[in-house]
Design a protein that fits this description.
With about 260 residues, the protein is an alpha/beta fold. Helices cover about 25% and strands about 30% of the residues. The strands form five sheets. Strands 8-7-6-9-10-16-13 form a seven-stranded mixed β-sheet, with helices on both faces. The chain has a three-stranded mixed β-sheet with strand order 1-3-4. Strands 2-5 form a two-stranded parallel ribbon. Helix 4 links the parallel strand 7 and strand 8. It binds S-adenosylmethionine.
């Protein structure tokens, strides 16, 4: 995402230093006033996998649950959504969003907003949003079916859910529950197969459930950079067999599933 703002050399230096203070930058990339923020994740690649399959976002009210720094939200607003709300409890992501907002100004007419709250803070049975995204969140939830119900309740009838999450290979009954860590992450609970996830969605009352993408995460998509200097995917895979994590589990594989609230 690129915002062209003319900055003097000293303004650019100041902005660079301030933006650096908000590191680690995980979701992006951004180019703000000529400053390139090379984030850990190529979130633009995820967007390229998701975007072609969406009901057009123009004029839709959109919720991005666990939307991180807001990278995808700006892309949704760019597609003409009437309103995009990011919810994410991470203070760092909130301030990264606000830093980007500083450069965007009112160019989006204030259509893109961020509330630093979690899915559990969304009122029950809201039935408001035309499109709800949950990307990279389900595997962090200890009760995945409850998460699916919460997403459904946030949608207006007929609305569209875009669910992106870690999956494993397998059939309708395959669900993998790792030990204390998965790819070094401590808070990973349920990794279903994409077929099992479709089954869950149907059991939760979604219709028109379909897998639109499934792929193993590459070392080019998630890696350490100058803006995220900690360990990244390469450090979390078995050095002798990159098809496995350091714990010996299948390496991260992600699916995108789309469904409608009946
Ligand atoms: C792996 S990141 C995914 C970010 C982004 N959606 C993406 O796909 O790149 C998971 C996000 O979920 C957020 N999160 C954690 N607990 C949450 C909750 N209870 N409700 C909503 N989001 C949550 C985290 O702060 C984090 O930003």
């Amino acid at each position: 995402m690129s915002i062209d703002v003319a900055l003097s050399n000293s303004q650019k230096r100041q902005c660079f230093n301030l933006l650096r203070k908000l590191s680690p930058w995980r979701k992006g990339p951004f180019r703000l006033g000529g400053i390139d923020i090379d984030t850990e994740w190529r979130s633009d690649w995820k967007w390229q996998r998701v975007a072609p399959h969406l009901a057009p976002l123009k004029y839709r009210k959109v919720l991005d649950v666990g939307g991180g720094s807001g990278y995808h939200a700006w892309r949704m607003a760019g597609e003409g959504a009437a309103f995009v709300l990011v919810i994410d409890p991470s203070p760092r992501f909130y301030w990264q969003f606000q830093a980007v907002r500083h450069f965007v100004g009112d160019a989006d007419g204030g259509r893109t907003q961020f509330l630093p709250v979690g899915i559990e803070d969304v009122p029950e049975k809201l039935g408001f949003f035309d499109t709800v995204f949950s990307m990279g969140v389900l595997y962090h939830r200890p009760s995945p079916l409850e998460h699916l119900q919460q997403l459904k309740e946030a949608l207006a009838p007929g609305g569209e859910l875009i669910l992106e999450t870690l999956v494993v290979e397998g059939d309708e009954q395959t669900v993998f529950v790792p030990g204390e860590r998965y790819a070094a992450m401590p808070n990973v609970y349920f990794l279903p197969s994409s077929k099992a996830l479709c089954h869950w969605l149907e059991r939760c009352g979604f219709s028109n459930v379909r897998v639109v993408d499934e792929a193993v995460t590459t070392l080019d998509e998630q890696r350490s950079t100058d803006w995220m200097t900690y360990q990244s995917l390469a450090d979390f895979l078995d050095p002798d067999d990159p098809t496995l994590t350091v714990e010996g589990y299948p390496a991260p594989r992600r699916a995108v599933i789309i469904a409608n609230r009946a």
